[in-house]
Design goal:
Layout (H helix, E strand, L loop, with lengths): L8 H12 L5 E8 L2 E6 L2 E2 L4 H11 L5 E4 L5 H4 L17 E7 L6 E7 L18 H38 L6 H22 L3 E4 L1 H10 L3 H18 L5 E4 L1 H10 L8 H6 L1 H18 L6 H7 L6 H10 L1 H10 L5 H6 L1 H7 L1 E2 L4 E2 L2
Parallel strand pairs: 7-8
Antiparallel strand pairs: 1-2, 1-6, 2-3, 4-5, 5-6, 9-10
Helix pairs in contact: 1-4, 4-5, 5-7, 6-8, 7-8, 10-11, 11-12
C-alpha cells in the first residue's frame, strides 16, 4: 500500500528545488512529525526498518547546514532501482547534496537530499559537475541553504499556527465560542495574509464570510496555501484593480469547486460530525503505525492519535457514535480500509444496519 505523506514544511522546500532544477534524479526528505521518523523518496513514503531509523537520526543529528556526498553512500537512494550504482572513480560521484534545516520539533535537522543529474547547470554556470571545484560546490551549497532556510522557517511556523487553529476549531465541534469568535477570525485572517505574501507583493484583503467559509473547510495547511494562491490569480483575472487583491467568498468557492478540493460529503457535515472525524483520525493513525512497521490494533492506533488516548477510550468513542459510524461505513465502502480490517469494534459496527439499528445477515 502506498501511503500519501501529510504536509511538512520540507515539502515547500522540495517544490522550490524542483522549480529551480526540474530534472533532479531523486529527492529524499527526512524529518520527524507527530513523534514519528519519516522518509520520503520522490513523493512516496518508505516503511523504515530499525536500521534505517538509526540512519535517519544520524543524518538529522548533523552539525552542518549542507554537505556533498555520493549517491551510492546514501542508503535511501542507493537502494532505489532507478538510480544506477556509480563506479568508485566516477567523475561525477559527488552529485548528492544534503541540505539540513533545524527543526523546532526536536532541535535536530530536517533534511532534503537532492541527487543532481550529470548535466545540471547551476545558476547559469555553464559547467558540468566534474568541472566544479570544491570551493564552487561549497558556494552552491551555501547559496541554496540560505535561499531555502527562510522559506522553511516561515512554513514551519505557519504550519504550527495553522495546526493549532484546526485543533481549536475541532475542540469546539465546529462551532466557535461567541466571545472568542472575532479574535479567532482575525488570527486566522493574519495567517492567511502571511501565506498570501509568499505569492504576491500587492496588498490582499479577505472578506470575513470568505474566512469563515475557509475555516469550515478544515483543509490542511498545504491545501490552504494552494487555495489562496489560486484565489489570488483568479481575483486578478476578474478584477481590474492592479493595486489591491480582494478575496471574497464567491472567489474562494469557485476555486474550491474548480480544483475539487471539496469532499464528496459537504464540508460542514465533515466538520461538525464527530463520527466522520473519528473514522478519519483513526485511519490516519493506522497509516502512521503501518509506515513504522507496527501491527495495527486498537492499542497501537490509540497510541498514534494526537493526543494519544487509552484503548478503552478509543472503543468507547466508537460505541458512542455507532449509528452514524455505521452509516458512513455503508455509504462509503472504499474509505478507511485499515481500520475496517484491523479494529474489531469497527467490524462489529459494520455489521449493523444504521437505519434499522439491527445486525445484518
Amino acid at each position: 500500500m502506498s501511503l500519501i505523506p501529510t504536509y511538512h514544511p520540507l515539502h515547500a522546500i522540495k517544490d522550490k528545488l524542483v522549480d529551480i532544477f526540474p530534472k533532479l534524479d531523486a529527492v529524499v526528505l527526512l524529518y520527524k512529525q507527530n513523534k514519528q521518523l519519516v522518509a520520503e523518496l520522490n513523493h512516496e513514503l518508505k516503511t523504515l526498518t530499525e536500521l534505517e531509523k538509526i540512519i535517519v537520526q544520524k543524518v538529522r543529528n548533523s552539525s552542518l547546514n549542507y554537505q556533498w556526498s555520493r549517491p551510492e553512500d546514501f542508503i535511501f537512494i542507493s537502494q532505489h532501482e532507478n538510480i544506477k550504482q556509480l563506479e568508485l572513480m566516477d567523475e561525477y560521484n559527488n552529485r548528492l547534496l544534503l541540505l539540513h534545516f533545524q527543526s523546532s520539533d526536536d532541535q535536530l535537522k530536517d533534511t532534503v537530499a537532492i541527487c543532481f543529474p550529470k548535466d545540471v547547470v547551476f545558476f547559469g554556470l555553464r559547467k558540468s559537475l566534474n568541472s566544479l571545484t570544491t570551493d564552487e560546490k561549497m558556494l552552491i551549497g551555501e547559496l541554496l541553504h540560505k535561499l531555502l532556510a527562510s522559506e522553511y522557517n516561515l512554513n514551519f511556523k505557519s504550519n504550527q499556527q495553522f495546526s493549532l487553529l484546526q485543533k481549536y476549531y475541532e475542540l469546539q465541534n465546529g462551532e466557535l465560542i461567541k466571545s472568542h469568535r472575532n479574535n479567532f477570525v482575525e488570527y486566522f485572517r493574519s495567517n492567511c495574509i502571511q501565506i498570501c505574501k509568499k505569492h504576491i507583493s500587492l496588498e490582499v484583503q479577505i472578506d470575513e464570510d470568505a474566512l469563515i467559509f475557509l475555516i469550515e473547510q478544515n483543509v490542511s495547511f498545504d491545501v490552504l496555501d494552494d487555495i489562496l494562491k489560486n484565489s489570488i490569480m483568479f481575483s486578478q483575472l476578474v478584477s481590474q484593480n492592479t493595486a489591491l487583491v480582494k478575496l471574497n467568498k464567491l472567489i474562494i468557492q469557485t476555486i474550491l469547486l474548480n480544483n475539487e478540493y471539496i469532499n464528496p460529503i459537504q464540508p460542514n457535515q465533515i466538520n461538525t460530525d464527530r463520527a466522520f472525524d473519528i473514522l478519519t483520525r483513526y485511519e490516519e493513525a493506522a497509516e502512521k503505525a503501518l509506515q513504522n512497521g507496527e501491527s495495527i490494533n486498537g492499542r497501537v492506533i490509540a497510541s498514534y492519535l494526537v493526543p494519544a488516548i487509552s484503548p478503552p477510550a478509543l472503543t468507547e468513542a466508537l460505541k458512542k457514535h455507532k449509528n452514524k459510524i455505521s452509516g458512513y461505513l455503508h455509504e462509503f465502502p472504499d474509505r478507511w480500509p485499515l481500520i475496517r480490517k484491523s479494529l474489531k469494534p469497527i467490524r462489529e459496527i459494520e455489521q449493523f444496519d444504521p437505519k434499522m439499528n439491527t445486525k445484518l445477515g
